Amino acid sequence: MKTQIALLTAGIALAGCSGLNDTQQRALTGTAIGAGGGAVLGAIGGNAGLGAVAGAAAGLAGGLIYDKVQKDQQSAYQQGYSAGRQSSGR
After folding, report:
1. DSSP string, 11-69
2. pLDDT computed for residue 18 by the predictor
3. Is 74 contained in some domain?
4. pLDDT at site 19
5. Which domain holds residue 59?
6. Comparing C-alpha atoms, which of 52, 30, 57, 32 is closest to residue 41?
7. Residue 88's pLDDT is what?
8. For 60, what's the count of Cα atoms within 13 Å in the CB-facing half-sphere?
9. Which of 64, 63, 82 is nearest to 74 (CA)?
10. CA-CA distance, 2 to 37, in Å (whole number)?
11. 3-state class of 89 per DSSP?
């Protein structure tokens, strides 16, 4: 029964995430993955809640860093593309 309630809650929470921009999606994904991984490691260590909180914080940071890297990469690509178009005379 607890598993079914948890799955239903997760499904409802994820259904509300359809209108997020890329930054929000990456932050949310990082947080969720970090919380899950932290909870598992925390359970092994004896405190799943603390592990989940620490994992969520680390996951959020990782998601935001990944987002920054992706945006920088896209920006560099666009600059190179524009420079290439200008140098070819198109």
Report:
1. HHHHHTTTT--HHHHHHHHHHHHHHHHHHHHHHHHT-HHHHHHHHHHHHHHHHHHHHHH
2. 74
3. yes
4. 83
5. 20-88
6. 52
7. 78
8. 7
9. 82
10. 20
11. coil
For residue range 3-50, list pLDDT tens digits in order: 666 656 666 666 666 788 999 999 999 999 999 999 999 999 999 899
In a domain, 7, yes or no: no
Its pTM stands at 0.72
Cα–Cα dist 75/66, whole Å: 14
Q: What is the pLDDT of residue 79?
A: 95
Per DSSP, the three-state class of 72 is helix
- pLDDT band at residue 77 using 50, 70 and 90 as cut-offs: very high
Nearest to 33, CA basis, from 64, 11, 63: 63
> Is 49 exposed, middle or buried, given 0-12, 13-18 or 19+ CB atoms closer than 10 A?
exposed
What is the residue whose two structure tokens read 């969720």? 32
Q: Looking at the 3D structure of the chain, how many domains does it have?
A: 1
